[in-house]
Amino acid sequence: MNEVMQAILSRRSVRQFTDQEVPREVLQDLAQAALHAPSGMGKKTWKFTVVTNREKIRQLAKIMGEVLGRDGYNMYDPTALIIPSNLKESPFGKEDNACALENIFLAAHSYGVGSVWINQMRDICDDPKIRPILTQMGIPEDHTVYGMAALGYAAEPAREYREGGEVVFVD
Fold first, then answer.
1. Is the CATH code 1.10.8.60 the one for domain 21-152?
2. Which sign, positive or negative, has the C-alpha torsion 36, 40, 46, 49?
3. Quick one: which H or E segment has residue 90?
4. Residue 157: which pLDDT band, with cuts at 50, 70 and 90?
5. What are φ and ψ of residue 138, in 5° steps?
6. Residue 125, φ and ψ in degrees, nearest 5
7. Pick from 91, 147, 94, 112: nearest CA to 30
8. How many CB atoms lie within 10 A of CB 156?
9. What are the boundaries of each domain within the chain?
């Protein structure tokens, strides 16, 4: 089995991180992986915001928890966050950002960095409590955040693969 298939088949979501920081060079590579993801019609109407300030990450998580009505919400307390955003008017923004996130997750795994998809932002990114935080982070007002990559080193082994889905060949 080749390295790419091995990475795809062995990557799992990490939901508990250590305090060890992800090196900036690795985060730069993950951002490059995101920029090289497929994009509808090659438009690339996205932006990637890399947040390494733990207090800012925790502030965002706390406000998200308030808006979502989830006490103690912390996005699994990652040491880094990559926030893809895309033009609200982009017909492919959601799909483009999903492809970019998958590239981030696989690239992170190749460096031994754990990741998990944070998907709660899509419906709340324009909430009056959330938008000012995103704006402070440099995320444009005309962008939507469909999902985020929470990153860090795993504090515990990842779960086993769960069987599911179906593959059908039509010849």
1. no
2. negative
3. none
4. confident
5. 90, 10
6. -65, -20
7. 112
8. 11
9. 21-152
